[in-house]
Structure formats: C-alpha cells, structure tokens
Design goal:
The chain is an alpha/beta fold. It folds into two domains: 165 residues, 3-Layer(aba) Sandwich (Isopropylmalate Dehydrogenase); 155 residues, Isopropylmalate Dehydrogenase. It is 46% helix and 16% strand. It contains eleven helices and eleven strands. The chain has an eleven-stranded mixed β-sheet, sandwiched between helices. Strand 10 and strand 11 form a beta hairpin. Helix 5 packs across helix 6, helix 5 crosses helix 11 and helix 8 runs antiparallel to helix 9. The protein is globular, with a radius of gyration of 20 Å.
Length: 331
C-alpha cells in the first residue's frame, strides 16, 4: 500500500506534533511519507512503514498563500504533493495554510476535468445521529451558481463514497426553506441545483440541515468557514459552561461522574481532532487539509482518513460524477 505524504512543516505546532501523529499512524500500520527538513526530522524507526523525504523549504502560516506556493517549489507542501503526482503516494495531508495548500495542489496536481474551483468539505455530526457533509469551508470565497452546483455534485459523491450514504440528499444553505427566499446568489444557485441529476432538497436553514434535513449542505467558502468556526466555538462554549456548572455544587460532581461515559462520547463527536481534517475536493488527487491547531491525535486521525478516501477512489468517482452532471457539449 502506498503511503500518505504528510507535510511535516505545516501547522501551528509543526513539526513536533506532526511527527508524533505520523509515528502513531505508522505504529497502527498506516504507511506514511513524512516530508520536511531532514535536519528537523528524527530518524525513521526500524520496522515501521515510515519514510522520510527531504524538503529544504517551508511555507509560513503568515505568508501570502498563492505567492508563497509559486515561489517555493522545494517547500514541504509542494514536495509532498509531487509524491502524489509521481505515483509515490496515494494521498497528501498538510495542517499548514489552507490557501497555500490549495494553491500548491493546483500547481502540482491540477483540477479534476470539468471542475472550475476546488472546495473544502468536512462531515459534521447531526442531531439524528447521521453526518452532514458541509462545503465549501473556505477554499473558494466568492462563487458563481455554476460552481456551487459543482460543489453539490462533489459533496454527493463524497457522502456516497466515504460515508456510505446510499442516496445523499443535497441542501442549499439559506435563511429559510421557501423557494425564492435568500439573496440573489442563493436564488441563482437554487435554480442551478434544481436542474442537476441529484436528490436536491432545496434551500435549507442550518437548524433543519443539522436535524437531518439533508446529507450534504452547500454554500460559498466565506459562509461555510464562518459556520464551521461558529460550530466549533459553540461546542467549546457549551463544554466550558457545563464544566463551570459541574464544579459549582458537590452533588453536581457526582452526577457528572455518573454521566462521564456519555459526556466522553458526546465530546468525541464534536471534537474536530477525532476526524483530523477536511477534504479538498476537485483536486486531481486525494488531498486533505488539517486544522492549523491540530495536535498529534488529529494528525493520526487525518492520516487514517486519507488512506480511507484513497481506498474508495474518491478522485475517480468525483471525475465520473462531474462528467455525468455536466456533460461536455457535442463537437
């Protein structure tokens, strides 16, 4: 099995936590190709499916994404992606700048034929126990209706291939469920989605979607990124307030002890570290985006997820889905 190429130098806490997460994934049997400055990487332990690849440069979190990606061909990000391009790795992962990672992916791998813009997606927990695929989460801030339609197709393929949803329902994020409601961009996207060969559930409020109204929720990258960060902040806020209340009274602590297993399961569902990262859809390869704040556990989870996506031929299935939904005009 080919490895997942991991950008060891990307992320707020790189390379230490990335190395730790990669080592844990290798101990679990997941092959990893760790890419970075060899002077800062430890020797690969004997017997583990872990290889080291030298990259003398790195893209900083504070650099202009597109400019840095172009000007740093020997950065750890681009070297990792070249391993995928050259058939030496089955997927690539970075916890560095999302913008730089996307720009580097476009340079080294290009787009799936027919895709105008990539989109970042992630699967979030729903109230009914299912998962909600949300995209775009920040790859494309300003989108046209046709691009949102492509996001819908890619999100549907992801839900079917990776999550195993037989017939994913697609919703369009809006401020109401009535047709004709929302701004002009939402109205135009609604018309574009309505003509696609997929199970389109129409415009949808976040509450309806998270209660199980759809399996895929489509929006532009600005709105999606704000929604995701709001969800993360809300989960942290609720957890903090709950802890304060538990510590307020002795009897509450006993109740918390009894509920500890249930609370642990709930926290694992809401914690981004349990999944590890989002998927960059529309790139001509399997590419994952880790959270900049990722710890070692999140890196390990992302590597597992990358292997799973590659095993399901996600890139090929997206290409087939786009070709079916948007057939090229006859010559």
């Amino acid at each position: 099995m080919l490895p997942v190429a991991v950008d060891a130098m990307g992320g707020d806490r790189a390379p230490e936590v990335v190395i730790e997460g990669a080592l844990q994934a290798a101990r679990e049997g997941y092959p990893v190709a760790l890419v970075g400055d060899l002077a800062r990487l430890p020797a690969a332990p004997a017997g583990l499916p872990l290889s080291l690849h030298h990259a003398p440069d790195a893209i900083g979190m504070d650099e202009h994404p597109a400019v840095a990606a172009r000007r740093r061909p020997e950065s750890s990000a681009r070297v990792a992606l070249r391993l995928v391009r050259d058939g030496l790795a089955r997927a690539a992962l970075s916890c560095g700048s999302t913008g730089a990672w996307m720009a580097a992916s476009l340079i080294e791998l290009g787009r799936v034929p027919g895709v105008e813009r990539p989109a970042v997606c992630a699967a979030l927990p729903r109230a009914d126990g299912g998962r909600l695929v949300l995209l775009d989460l920040g790859a494309t801030v300003d989108t046209r209706p046709e691009q949102l339609a492509q996001f819908a197709v890619m999100g549907q393929v992801f839900a079917k291939a990776v999550l195993g949803v037989a017939s994913p329902r697609v919703g369009l994020l809006s401020n109401g469920g009535e047709r004709g409601k929302g701004n002009e961009a939402v109205k135009a996207a609604d018309r574009a989605l309505d003509g696609l060969p997929l199970d389109y559930a129409g415009p949808m409020e976040p509450t309806t979607a998270f209660r199980g109204g759809c399996d895929v929720l489509v929006c532009d990258g600005f709105v999606g990124n704000v929604l995701l960060k709001t969800a993360e902040a809300t989960a942290e806020l609720v957890g903090g307030l709950l802890k304060q209340e538990v510590l307020r009274e002795p009897q509450h602590r006993l109740a918390a002890w009894l509920l500890a297993p249930a609370l642990k399961r709930l926290r694992s569902q809401l914690d981004y570290k349990a999944v590890g990262g989002g998927q960059l859809l529309g790139i001509n390869g399997v590419v994952l985006v880790g959270h900049g704040r990722s710890d070692a556990r999140a890196v390990t989870a992302a590597i597992r997820h990358a292997h799973h996506c590659a095993g399901e031929d996600l890139r090929g299935r997206i290409a087939a889905g786009i070709a079916r939904a948007f057939p090229a005009p006859a010559p």
